[in-house]
Amino acid sequence: METEIQEPKSLKTISVKIRWWTNGLPEKVGAKKESIPCWNSGVVIIEANKAKGIKSDSEVFHYYEDIPRAITALLGRAKIAMMSDISYEIRAKKRLKKS
Is 34 helix (H, G, I), strand (E, B) or coil? Predict the structure, then answer.
């Protein structure tokens, strides 16, 4: 069984990777054969972080504009809340109470 060792610096971060599929494509494309091709779909992966209680998970995206949805889905399943979102909710509740 392979175990992942995290350095102290990585314990303070949440890491998300984006990988595009490249299977079944030529090595190079373009007029001068300089571009490396990839499909318009792939997978977004959230890495495990034992210190934060985050388990590794993944979400497939089907086109480039679908990446934000895939990231949001992963963050939601990992119960990660962005601080800007939380502070906005707190301010909004205070404004409602004043009204």
Answer: coil
**The pLDDT of residue 51:** 86
How far, in Å, are 7, 20, 27, 85 from residue 37 at the CA level? 34, 10, 7, 36
Alpha helices in 1-99 (DSSP H): 67-77, 83-98
Judged by DSSP in three states, 60 sits in strand
- Percent of the chain past pLDDT 70, that is, above it, reads 87
- Number of Cα atoms under 13 Å in the Cβ half of residue 1: 2
Residue 46: which H helix or E strand, with range? strand 42-46
Distances (CA, A) of 24 to 27, 28, 47, 73: 9, 12, 27, 28
Between 47 and 8, residue with greater pLDDT:
47
Each domain of the chain, given as residue ranges in start order, spans 13-98
